[in-house]
Amino acid sequence: MTDAAISTAPVRKPSSAVLQALRRNRFSWIGIGLLAAIIFAAIFAPLLSPYDPLKQHILDRLQAPSADFWLGTDSYGRDVLSRLLYGARISLSIGFLSVMVAMVVGSTIGILAGYIGGLFDQLIMGLVDVMLSFPTLLLGLMVAAMLGASFENLIIAIAITETAPFARIARAPTIAIKRREFVDAGRSMGFTPLRIMGVHILPNILSDIVVVASLWMASAIRTEASLAFIGLGVSPPTPTWGGMIREGFDNILNAWWLVVFPSIAILLTVLALNILGDALRDAIDPKTRSQS
Questions:
Q1: Tens of pLDDT along 86-140?
Q2: What is the pTM of this model?
């Protein structure tokens, strides 16, 4: 087998399958539309926000939703809608970046463990099992408490909680693919293990990793909101959805909008990501495709 043939070894190309799955599952377009709208609102928050999210209007504190303040104001007179739009930037950024870090680190660990095998695989998977034994929020709470509350530390804390699932997902298909004929042919031609893992194994498992990433990004946003609610999120007055819920909890009986609207934003974002993840899983899972 020539080098060119090895380079064009079987690689799953899920793009057409994804489009077919989206056409079959029309409900998935609801998730895509919701996610697109939320991302659009986050990107263009400076243009869409009617007020400065940090500017206080004490005379207008705890105003109910009205024509002047569509989603009301908080205890400092800040516009809830403006803070909600800017909070989307923080929550989505933390969710996306933490998942990207976890995906790169976890997938690398999983591929190495699956390809090398032996004692190395047992040790790595033992550590992964230990990490998986901790609830996600509890592990994130421990790491965030040790590192301190900041944007960067929050990304690190959430990424650590999500590294183990990516390692598990990457390891299993790596073990199966490394026994394939095109991988054996690559070894016989003197390809380095790094090239085999990066060029021939990674493209074949990338679709599985992307599906997990879409689902775990929803978990990352929930974890960020939970940590912010208990005071381990981005420091005030920077608006975040979890922080807004925490600030509004003291006035929940007489200012319900302070908690309800950020909660709805988290709900819609998580719902959209889960719908999208389910659609991607249906497109990639051969059992689902065969039943269609």
A1: 999 998 999 999 999 999 999 999 999 999 988 998 999 999 988 888 888 888 8
A2: 0.83
d(CA 92, CA 100): 12
> Residue 239: which residues within 8 A CB-CB, separation 6 or more?
53, 54, 83, 84, 86, 87, 90
Tell me the per-residue pLDDT of 235-255, one tens digit each, with 9 for 90 and over: 888 889 988 998 888 888 889
CA angle 124, 281, 125 (to 5 degrees): 5
